[in-house]
Protein: Galactose oxidase
Organism: Plenodomus tracheiphilus IPT5
Amino acid sequence: MSMLHALMLNHSQFEPPVLKRLQVPPILGHRSQIDESFQAPCRFFHLSQNVLSSRAHRVPTWKNLASIPFAARQEHTTVFLPPSTIAILGGIIPSNGSDSIIPVETVPLMQFYSIPDDTWTSRAPVPRALNHLNVAVVKGKIYVLGGLTESGNATTRAWSAVSDSWVYDPIVDTWESVLAMPLNEARGSAAVGVYDGKIYLAGGMTMLELFGNRTQDTVSIVSIYDTRNRTWLTVPKPAKQIPEGRDHAGAAVIGSRMYILGGRNHAQLNVKDTVFILDLCNLEAGWRTSDERMPTARGGVTAGTIGRKIYTFGGEGNPAAENKVFDEVEVYDTVANRWESVGTMVVPRHGTYAVGVGRGVYIPGGGVVQGGAPVADFNVFIP
């Protein structure tokens, strides 16, 4: 019996024991880049320079939290579920039975982490095993809008896009199907943002081959799902395509603007340093590229927001490191339009997601070697 089959027999029986509580940063508003409550639809948005500059003289720190239970994880998606829960969905775990060059298997697991208690619990799994899922939280519910799943055989193995979409209600611990992604727009690894009840998917990839040419089919398309009307919207032509294809990029929504940071285009080592910006109140204006580039071009990067700032972590495609993984932590001030280096990761990795909550950015799991090498490490970065 594989590890996955053992875990999925009954998710409720795998509740981990309560772990010793750690001192974690206080929750100051529980806001993240996908928390809709932070946004005032299409109104003037301003963050006080005085309030948000109070952190300037702090020395950044890392704190270790309870490791992901049961199995190390990579290529999962992480979201914040108010008031105090972090959820991780899908991804890949180590597999002794895999005949792939990368011995991993894709899973449908979903686990909740309690910030106040520093404990993990298992919840109803995603209806389909997926990695590189496109996930967002709107009004207390978790939406999964496509992703990548296993395809091919032992010699043609790949991860291919699916259009299946669902919504999860944490109160009753159940999933419900919603309208699938539009024809020819199925993909995983999209940059995801939420604004005014709508979920924005920008870029992504339709195929990632694990053998042969190792093709990575990157796309530039933009899709919008309206959670109120449970339908996919027609995207105005100026906003329908980002300036260039991107997958494995960082993403954030601050105020009424969506940001796509770094990522890669059609190849694992074709990493980028761009910042694409879209005014979500003026889609007709289309995307623009910031004149401020990331200090370190990287794909597989993860990003989390605190106030007006976007913190970027790790990534892969680093020619200077033996494991090809970046350890850089760099912050983009969206008001000052300026980048700054703020140290290095305590466990450098890629293939994970970060979420900003209160005054910390939480980063569970990821890969410590370019390609596949999942770990269970879980840390919070406090700038």
